[in-house]
Structures are given as structure tokens and as C-alpha cells.
Amino acid sequence: MKTELEFHHVGNTRLHRVNSANTFGNTVFAKCEFMNPTGSHKDRTFLHMVTELEARGKITPGMTLVDCSTGNGGAALAWIGRKKGYKVVIFMPEGMTEERKRQIREFGAEIIETDREHFLNGSVLAAKKFIAGKPAGQFYFLDQGSSLLNKSAWIQCGKEIVSQLEGQNVVPDYFVCSIGTGGTFSGIAEVLKARYQNLKTIGIEVDKSAPLYAKKYNLDFTHKPHNMMGLGAGVLSCNTNEEVIDEVVVVSGEKSWERMKKFIEVERLGIGPTCGANLYVCEEISKVVTGKTIVTLFFDSAWKYKSRWSGVYPEYSGS
Predict the structure, then answer these.
(1) CATH number for the domain including 166?
(2) What is this structure's pTM?
């Protein structure tokens, strides 16, 4: 009973009015997913995935759950696994922040670091190889990047946003959100698009690894190392529903980190660098429109990045 009560703290996050970004008569709202128990939006993703897999008889307590992550998802799965009675193994590219690794281990999970050269794709390949040699029924690879349970986890968040906006008699004009696996963006956008016919959605990718941007604008794509962990794995996931993405833009890690730090200084909310990317694009939109309402997300927490507060990941050249 106590465990289920703790899971009630996942979701139902507040919708924050971003006072420092309300320019040219526009209003920006951010859904505060960093306020989830482990400090990121991935609590919502993995609680939904584990709950659904249990309901379908795919997993049962006592099994070992395996997935790949740059940190947030790993912490979320490790926390949920400990509470529900699962062992957890996380495959992670080397060079991630010490705070993320420490949190995962504190929840009792094992981390297997993989070669930085292949980034998150290398972690996925290593996890699949690891699972292939294990007894059936004892190990399960959740594979958040390829499981549509990822996207469906965000339907509820979309409904929460609609309810919160309607409670203030607000109709949104834009939904702006960075794209990693695409599950968060697509799940929310599907709900908002169904409710608000005139809504325009804008997806964000990091400039050094933007496969969707390249596809939409017929550009050659090459993945390059960057400092926006959680984004830019270098592949398009099945969770990315291109039909609900009206426009794709790119933003640099440098501008994202700068905007994050400025926001923290002004509004005293500890958000992470991908949140800075979202804010930066919201403000770019505000330069060319007026009287509009823009909705975005705050994914994760600033404390997860303290050991890399300069924004530099030495393991990833050019970051």
C-alpha cells in the first residue's frame, strides 16, 4: 500500500507560468515534469511501461528488467524496480554525469557502461546481446526507444495539460518540445491536436544530431557528439509520430545551457539543459508573434548536471 501511495506522486505536475519568458504579449506555460520523484519526466514513462507489462503478463516481480539510458530513464526504472521487487540493469554510454550514475546505483540497479563511440545506439546493441544469452522468463528488455508504451505513457500528461489550461480559460496556440525518443512529444501532441484544431506543434532537436530535421528538409544526416544528454541519439524512434509535428527546429547545446542557467537565476527553479532548449525556442517564437499562448515542458532537474555544470563533456569531442 505504501508503495502505491508513493507512485501517486508521479504525474499531476504543475503548469508553471514562465514569467521571465512572457515577451511581446505572449504567455509561456511549462509542465513541470522535473518535479516527479526521481527528478525527471521518465518516472511517468517507466511507471506506465512497467504497469502495462505487468498487466499483460510479460513481467512479474523477481525478474531482472533491462534498459538503456543516459541517466533519467535509468533512475526512474531503478526506483520503480526497487519499489516493485525487480532487479534492474541499465546500459549507459560512458561519460554521463556522476549524479545520474550515483542515483541509479543508490536505487540498487547495476550500470553497464558502453563505448562512447557509438553513444546510445551502442548501449542498445549491448543490451540486446546481454538479453540474448539469458534464460527466458527471468530477464526482460523494456527497450523504451522501440516500445510504443513509451508514447502511450504521455497521453495522460496531455490530458492533464488540457485540464489545467481549461481551468484558466486558456487556449494554447503552440506546443513546443524537444524530441529524444519522441514518446513525450508525440503522446502529448496527439492529445492537444485532438482538442485544439488550430494548435501548431514545434519539435526541437539538438543541432549536432537532428535526424528528423534532416529528413523533413531533405538534408544529409550525420550524428555528431553533443552536450544535450537525453536528445540526439542519432536515430528516429517509432515513438516519433511525424503526423503531429508541424515544424522541426534545431538549437545548439551552448544556447540551451545558457538559457537554462539564466532561468534558474531569475525564477529559482532548478531545471536541466533540455528545458533550456525548450525555453530558447519559445522565446524565438515570441519574437515573431504576439498575444499567443505557448506550452512547453520542463523535463528534468539541474542537480543531475552539477558535475558537468560547464556544459562540457570531455568524453565527447566537440561537445
Answers:
(1) 3.40.50.1100
(2) 0.95
